[in-house]
Amino acid sequence: MNKVPMTLRGADKLREELNDLKSVQRPRVIQAIAEAREHGDLKENAEYHAAREEQGFIEGRIQEIEGKLANAEVIDVTSLNIKDKVVFGATVELLEIETEKEVKYQIVGDDEASIKEGLISVNSPLARALIGKFEEDEVEVQTPSGLKEYEIIRISYI
Length: 158
Description:
By secondary structure, this protein is α/β, with parallel strands linked by helices. The chain has two domains: 4-75, Helix Hairpins (Orthogonal Bundle), CATH 1.10.287.180; 77-156, Chitinase A, domain 3 (Roll). Strand 6 and strand 7 (146-156) form a beta hairpin. The longest helix has 30 residues, at 8-37. The chain is built from three helices and seven strands; from the N terminus they run βααββββαββ.
């Protein structure tokens, strides 16, 4: 399988979630299943069925995270020797030319993307248009609401 780019922060968040699932959530649900079994008849035991369902979710999520981490190419943008060029992991401040509104995004892996947090996927149209550009460059991006033009104000690697 191909390696998937991921920021150091994204990989750390996945590792934290994996640790929580394995060391806190899994033991908690195993205990809940054991307690529900003590109540007798498992066919009509809602607590038992709910705990088993939650256990299935936890185990599935553990496998999913382990798979993502196994296929991740973790990129620490602070260790790259890049001068003023937009690359994966860079934080880019943009000026939308038409509205003169400033926006700030970090280019991250698909699983890390969250527009609310200012994190855009490396595979998004905006990120693809920005990769390889420099400060003061202008880019055009086709969006659902039409063509938008941006000027790159600042690029940082944090």
